[in-house]
Design brief:
Blueprint: H1 3-31, H2 38-57, H3 61-80, H4 89-108, H5 114-118, H6 125-152, H7 159-179, H8 182-201
Helix pairs in contact: 1-2, 1-8, 2-3, 3-6, 6-7, 7-8
Length: 204
């Protein structure tokens, strides 16, 4: 597949991630505290699907693992906001069926294996490890947020979420430099700005 198609998928995913951040940022600025619109979680689900596909096309295990782990938490937050029942049927089918189709393709048709991804000549093992560490830290923000939200019985983005976001983003940005990945570079440069601003806005 042509590189421009692959990068287009990646940039589309990151555009969606940026839209969710901007919508959350504007709403928070207006309220003078961190707010989490339902749109944030809906866009997150769609963007995660696209970024997983981008990671697969780039033979990039850290990206694939990060999106696979986080998908369920996006879904759970949407349910915590009590919006799932009112959500458009096409959206429901898309976010439920697409992961099943992707999993089926990876199991039955893909030639990629975990071993081939770890032994990728384009990405040395040490860099894969850095990427995975970055994704673990970055993903842990939503595990923290999930536990926090379940405990408080509402979907919210506490201060610890933004600290983990910024920490993970810095590691992934470093990974992206070595990977020469314009999608990750652009996303985490812009994301870091929003994370820092939300740290100042957060009162939790």
């Amino acid at each position: 597949m042509n590189d421009w198609i692959i990068y287009s998928i990646g940039f589309l995913a990151q555009l969606l991630f940026s839209i969710r951040l901007i919508s959350q940022w504007f709403l928070s600025e207006k309220a003078k505290k961190v707010k989490t619109p339902t749109l944030y979680w809906k866009i997150s689900l769609l963007a995660a699907l696209l970024l997983f596909i981008y990671g697969y096309l780039r033979d990039d295990l850290p990206i694939m693992l990060g999106q696979a782990f986080i998908y369920t938490i996006y879904f759970r937050n949407l349910k915590l906001q009590h919006e799932w029942k009112e959500t458009n049927l096409i959206f429901k089918i898309t976010v439920l069926l697409t992961p099943i189709l992707i999993a089926a393709y990876l199991i039955f048709f893909s030639e990629q294996t975990l071993k081939s991804l770890l032994e990728n000549e384009d990405i040395p093992l040490w860099l894969v490890i850095v990427g995975i560490i970055g994704q673990v830290v970055y993903t842990s923000r939503f595990i923290y947020q999930w536990v926090y939200s379940e405990r408080h019985e509402k979907s919210s983005l506490p201060k610890g979420f933004w600290i983990l976001s910024l920490s993970g983003s810095i590691i992934i940005f470093t990974y992206a430099i070595f990977r020469s990945d314009p999608v990750l570079l652009a996303a985490h440069f812009f994301g870091a700005i929003v994370y820092i601003r939300n740290l100042f806005l957060n009162n939790d």
